[in-house]
Amino acid sequence: MTAWSPRNAAEVAALVARHPLAWVVSGAPSFHATPLPLVADLDDEGGVAALVGHFALRNPQVEALKAHPRALVLFQGAEGYISPELVTQPQWAPTWNYAVARLEVEVEFAADQNGEALDRLIAHMEGDRPDRWTVAAMGERYEPMSRHIIAFRARVLSCDATFKLGQDERPESLAQILAGHADPELTAAMREANEPR
């Protein structure tokens, strides 16, 4: 474990929930990479046990994953350049702060779960808004469109996450970065990562 390791499995789950668009990368028989929004199934410790999503059936990665179901799923959280102009410490070098998670998964397709996968994704993205959208609003368009996708559940085999968010900075330098950086999402992630463990 390093200073940049997540403190617990729930931090990775939070990254996935806040930044659901991931790259699904597979390498057999040739490389494929598709950006897809995903939602997580959690285990008893609050960690990511599986990812649920859907592909367009015409995507060639579907057939590739049916033949070779292993893939790498890449999530990118808050990130940004940190300029030396923010820090008064002499010889301070610029850096890039970021939060990422790399999950190795085994993909299982389930066309009979298309509706459930769509409902879960829409519910996650729409949140608790009182007028949140549902597939019922599509009316008769929903059924023919749903035949062009295929749902999947990707069981997590391993997870490697890096939250490089200023944990190695001197307290005064960290305070200066937090006070002067223009990206509120990045500074919020840095504050959270630097809360006492």
List keywords for this structure.
single chain; 197 residues; alpha+beta; Pnp Oxidase, Chain A; seven-stranded antiparallel sheet; 28% helix; 35% strand
What would you say this structure looks like, in words?
With 197 residues, the chain is of the alpha+beta class. It has one domain (9-193): Electron Transport, Fmn-binding Protein, Chain A (Pnp Oxidase, Chain A), CATH 2.30.110.10. 28% of the residues lie in helices and 35% in strands. It contains 6 helices and 7 strands; from the N terminus they run H-E-E-E-E-H-E-E-H-H-E-H-H. It has helices at 9-18, 60-67, 114-126, 142-146, 171-180, 184-193, and strands at residues 21-26, 32-37, 39-42, 48-56, 70-82, 95-109, 149-164. The chain has a 7-stranded antiparallel sheet with strand order 2-1-5-6-7-4-3. Strand 3 (39-42) and strand 4 (48-56) form a beta hairpin. It is elongated. The two termini are 13 Å apart. The model has no long low-confidence stretch (mean pLDDT 95).
